[in-house]
Amino acid sequence: MADAATPVNLTRAAHVGISVSDLDASIAFYRALTGREPVAAGTMHSVPFGRAQGLPTAKLRYATVNLDNALGIDLIEFQEPVGERTNGVANRPGSMHLCFRVDDFDAVYRRMKEAGYAFLGDGYTFTAGEVTPDAALGTKVAYFNDPDGTNLEIIEPRGGFAA
């Protein structure tokens, strides 16, 4: 295990990588979600790259969609070795989610529902007695999945969450 007492100072995210089963379907989903075309797309077949990830090889197709804050979403379809779906349910240790910040939660939530996005539950507003500190009160969130079950969120942050 790494020494938690030794700071490494990683403070800037470059991208989030999402393994997908069908790159074309995922590009279509994220294009509709973000309104963005991929800025890069290609293939890779490399034993050393695969080994760098703990795999025997890596034969893959990929595409990158950039967001306004310079965070890239790398969509990666592993063709060799093909992996199993993780079914990243929110409460499973090791699962992650990607959160999209919105300025008008109600309008975006409504537009997404009208477009057929299936939310995992109703939208939620942080309320007193359920969250601390009170500075987060009024934050609105909703959760949904991409075609492979990747956890996604929209958030209109308030108070301390807005910083």
Element layout with pairings:
Elements: E1 15-19, H1 23-34, E2 40-46, H2 47-52, E3 58-66, E4 72-80, E5 97-101, H3 105-114, E6 124-125, E7 140-145, E8 151-156
Describe this structure in words.
This is VOC family protein. InterPro entries: Glyas_Bleomycin-R_OHBP_Dase (IPR029068), Glyas_Fos-R_dOase_dom (IPR004360), MMCE/EMCE_epimerase (IPR051785), VOC_core (IPR037523). Keywords: Metal-binding. The protein is of the alpha/beta class and about 160 residues long. The chain has three helices and eight strands; from the N terminus they run βαβαβββαβββ. It has a four-stranded mixed β-sheet with strand order 1-4-3-2. Strands 5-8-7-6 form a four-stranded mixed β-sheet, with no helix packed on it. It is globular and about 50 Å long.
CATH topology of the largest domain: Signal recognition particle alu RNA binding heterodimer, srp9/1
Q: Can you summarize the main beta sheet?
A: 4 strands, mixed
Secondary structure category: alpha/beta
Poorly predicted runs: none
Bulk shape: globular
* CATH architecture tag of the largest domain: 2-Layer Sandwich
Q: Into which percent range does the helicity of residues fall? A: 10-25%
Number of domains: 2
Strand order, sheet with most strands: 1-4-3-2
User: How far apart, in Å, are the first and last alpha carbons?
Assistant: 32 Å
